[in-house]
Design goal:
transport; Rossmann fold; cell membrane; ABC transporter transmembrane region fold; about 625 residues; 2 domains; about 60% helix; 22 helices; single chain; ABC1_TM_dom; 4-stranded antiparallel beta sheet; transmembrane helix; ATP hydrolysis activity; alpha/beta
Length: about 625
C-alpha cells in the first residue's frame, strides 16, 4: 500500500517538462517565491466570463426562471433550520398540540418544495447549458471553415479537435452545475449571515473568527491551481494532437520501424499530463480538508459559547441548534465556492482556448468592398509577383514572377522540388496572399484581391497531389464538385475521367460507401475520382497539381484523352514531374529557386538547350 501511495511522487522530469515548470512557478518547485513566467500569466478571465454571458444571454427568459428557482431554493434552505429550532423550543415548553403539528407540516413542506424547486432549476439549467455549448461549437466549427490555410499549416488537427471537444465540454459541465451552485452558495451565505445576526450577534461574531483562516487558505490554494489547470488543458491539447498525428501516419511509423520512438515521445507527453493533473487535483483536494477542519473548529466554538449563554438564559437551546445548522450552512457555501472555483478556473481556461480560435482573423475579413464575378474567361496575369511563407525570415519562395495565361491555354509548370510550382497555385487561389509590394495577380483584368475568395474559387477546380475523399458514397464524393448535379451528370463525369469502369465493378457501384479518406480503394482510383469531381465542377480555370502522380502508366495513358478534352476551352495549370504529361501544353514555365528561368513551348525550350532541355534529357533531376 505504501508503495502505491508513494508512486505519484516518483515522477522523473522528462525533457521540456512544462508541467514541472508550472509547478515551480507556483512555489512548489525549487524556485522560491514562484512568480509566474510571462507565458503562464493568466489572461483576462473577466472578459472571458463576459463572453460566456453573451452566449447565455440568448436564453434570458429561461435563465430568469432559473434564477427565481435559485432564490426560492435558497430561501427554503434558510427556512428549514429556523423551523427546526423553533420546533425544538416549542417541544421543550411542552410536547404535542396543534402548533407542534403545524411546525412538522411546515418543515415537511419546506423540504419537499425545496426538492421540487431544485429539480426544476437543474433541468432548466441543463437545457440552457447544452444550448450554450451547442452555439459555441457551431460558432467554432463555422469559424474554423472561414480561417485561412496558413492558420491550419501552423496547428495540429488533434489540438484543434481538443479545443472543440474537451475544452467546450469543460464549459458545459461547469454551466450544468457549478455556475448555479456558485450563485446559490452566495445567496445562502448572505442570507445565513443576516439571520445569524438577527438571532445572536455575539455567536455570529464568534463564528466569523474562522472566516479569515478560510479566506487565506482558499487564496493560497486557488492561486496555485489556476496555473496548473490551464497547464493541464494545454497538455491535453498537445497529447490529442500527437495521438491524431501518429495514428494518421501509422503506415509511415511502421514502415520506418519508429514504434518505440513514438511510444517514448507519447510517454513524455503523458507524463506531463500525469504531473500537472496530479498536482492540480492534489492541491485543489486540500480545500475540503481545510474547510472540514475549520468547520469542526466553528462547531466547537458555537457549542461552548452557546452552552454558556443558554445556562445564563441569554439564548434558548433551539437557537443553539439553529446556529449549529447555520454555521454548517455558512461554511458549506464557502466550501462549495472554493470547490467550484477550481472547476470555474478549469472551464475559464477551456473557454479562453476556444475564444483564442474565435479571435483569429477570418479569411474574408478584408472583403468588405470585394466583388463577385458571375463568369470569367480565364485570362490570368502574374505581374512581378514575389512571395514568402514567412516574411520575418525574409527568404522568398517566389521572386519577381511574370507571365500571362490567355483564356483556354494550358500552362505547364515544372522545376526541381522547392522551385515554387505549388506556391504559384496557392497564390492564384488566394490560399496565401502575395507580399504587399510583391506585384499583383489579375483574372480577366480584375486584381484577385478585389474578388471575393468564394467567387474566385467557384470558377476554379483542383486535382491535387493528395486526393482527399470524405466518408460517404462514391456518388456523393464526385458530386462534391457540383452539389446539384444529377446522377447522369455524375456518371458522365466519371466516364470522362475513365473512372466509370472500376466503379461499376465495385460492390454497390456508385453507392459504395467509402470510409474516412477513401480507404478501401487504391490511391490511383482515389485520384480518378478526384479528376471526375473536377470535371463535374465545369470550371473556367483548372489546376492539376501532380494529378497523375499516383496513377500507373497504363491508367495515365487512358485518362490523357479525357484530360485533354477537359482542358479544351479552359485555362489550365498543370504541375507534373513526368515531363511526357506536359508536352501538349501551350506554354511551359520552368522555375528554379523561385525564379522563372524559361518560358515557351516544348519544342522551343528544347531548342534553347537550357534548364528544360537538361530536365527533359535527365541531366538535371526534378526532385
Amino acid at each position: 500500500m505504501w508503495e502505491a501511495l508513494r508512486e505519484p511522487f516518483r515522477y522523473r522530469k522528462p525533457k521540456m517538462d512544462l508541467a514541472s515548470e508550472a509547478v515551480k512557478s507556483v512555489g512548489l518547485g525549487v524556485r522560491p517565491g514562484g512568480g509566474q513566467s510571462k507565458r503562464q500569466k493568466a489572461k483576462d478571465w473577466q472578459a472571458t466570463l463576459r463572453r460566456i454571458w453573451h452566449y447565455l444571454a440568448h436564453r434570458r427568459g429561461r435563465l430568469s426562471l432559473v434564477l427565481v428557482m435559485v432564490l426560492l431554493s435558497s430561501g427554503f434552505t434558510l427556512l428549514g433550520p429556523y423551523l427546526i429550532g423553533r420546533a425544538i423550543d416549542h417541544y421543550l415548553k411542552g410536547p404535542g398540540g396543534a402548533e407542534w403539528a403545524w411546525f412538522l407540516a411546515g418543515l415537511a413542506a419546506v423540504y419537499v418544495l425545496g426538492s421540487v424547486v431544485g429539480w426544476l432549476q437543474n433541468i432548466w439549467m441543463i437545457g440552457i447549458a447544452q444550448e450554450t455549448v451547442y452555439r459555441m461549437r457551431m460558432d467554432m466549427f463555422t469559424h474554423l471553415h472561414r480561417l485561412p490555410i496558413p492558420f491550419f499549416a501552423k496547428r495540429q488537427r488533434g489540438e484543434l479537435m481538443s479545443r472543440m471537444t474537451n475544452d467546450i465540454d469543460n464549459v458545459s459541465s461547469t454551466l450544468n452545475s457549478s455556475a448555479i451552485q456558485v450563485f446559490s452558495s452566495a445567496l445562502i451565505l448572505v442570507g445565513t449571515v443576516v439571520v445569524m445576526l438577527l438571532l445572536s450577534p455575539l455567536l455570529t461574531l464568534l463564528t466569523f473568527l474562522v472566516v479569515p483562516l478560510m479566506m487565506v487558505g482558499m487564496r493560497w490554494i486557488t492561486r496555485r491551481t489556476g496555473v496548473l489547470f490551464k497547464e493541464r488543458q494545454r497538455n491535453l491539447g498537445e497529447i490529442n494532437g500527437y495521438i491524431e498525428e501518429t495514428l494518421s501516419g501509422q503506415r509511415l511509423v511502421k514502415a520506418f520501424s519508429q514504434e518505440e520512438r513514438v511510444i517514448g515521445e507519447f510517454g513524455e507527453r503523458n507524463a506531463r499530463i500525469r504531473h500537472s493533473g496530479f498536482w492540480s487535483q492534489t492541491i485543489s483536494g486540500f480545500i475540503p480538508k481545510v474547510m472540514n477542519s475549520l468547520n469542526n473548529l466553528s462547531f466547537a466554538v458555537i457549542a461552548g459559547a452557546g452552552g454558556l449563554l443558554a445556562i445564563r438564559g441569554t439564548i434558548t437551546i433551539g437557537v443553539i441548534v439553529v446556529f449549529v445548522e447555520y454555521a454548517r450552512q455558512f461554511t458549506r457555501p464557502l466550501n462549495d465556492l472554493a470547490n467550484q472555483w477550481n472547476t470555474l478556473l478549469s472551464a475559464i481556461a477551456g473557454a479562453e482556448r476556444v475564444f483564442e480560435i474565435l479571435d483569429e482573423d477570418v479569411e474574408t475579413k478584408d472583403e468588405g468592398a470585394a466583388k463577385s464575378l458571375d463568369s470569367i474567361r480565364g485570362e490570368v496575369v502574374f505581374s512581378h509577383v514575389s512571395f514568402s511563407y514567412d516574411p520575418v525570415e525574409g527568404q522568398r519562395t517566389l521572386n519577381d514572377i511574370s507571365f500571362t495565361a490567355r483564356p483556354g491555354e494550358t500552362i505547364a509548370i515544372i522545376g526541381p522540388t522547392g522551385a515554387g510550382k505549388t506556391s504559384l497555385i496557392q497564390l492564384l487561389s488566394r490560399f496565401y496572399e502575395a507580399e504587399a509590394d510583391g506585384g499583383r495577380i489579375t483574372v480577366d483584368g480584375h486584381d484577385i484581391t478585389s474578388i471575393r475568395r468564394e467567387s474566385l474559387r467557384s470558377h476554379m477546380a483542383f486535382v491535387l497531389q493528395d486526393s482527399f475523399l470524405f466518408e460517404g458514397t462514391i456518388r456523393e464524393n464526385i458530386r462534391y464538385g457540383k452539389l446539384d448535379a444529377t446522377d447522369e451528370q455524375v456518371e458522365a463525369a466519371a466516364k470522362l475521367a475513365n473512372a466509370h469502369s472500376f466503379i461499376v465493378r465495385l460492390p454497390g457501384g456508385y453507392d459504395k460507401m467509402l470510409q474516412g479518406d477513401g480507404s478501401g480503394i487504391s490511391q490511383g482510383q482515389k485520384q480518378l475520382l478526384a479528376i471526375a469531381r473536377a470535371i463535374l465542377a465545369d470550371p473556367a480555370i483548372l489546376v492539376l497539381d501532380e494529378a497523375t502522380s499516383s496513377i500507373d502508366t497504363v491508367t495515365e495513358i487512358k485518362i490523357q484523352e479525357g484530360l485533354h478534352r477537359l482542358m479544351e476551352g479552359r485555362t489550365s495549370f498543370v504541375i507534373a514531374h513526368r515531363l511526357n504529361t506536359i508536352r501538349r501544353a501551350d506554354r511551359i514555365l520552368v522555375l528554379k529557386d523561385g525564379r522563372l528561368e524559361e518560358s515557351g513551348s516544348h519544342e522551343e525550350l528544347l531548342e534553347r538547350k537550357g534548364l528544360y532541355s537538361d530536365l527533359y534529357h535527365g541531366h538535371v533531376q526534378l526532385s
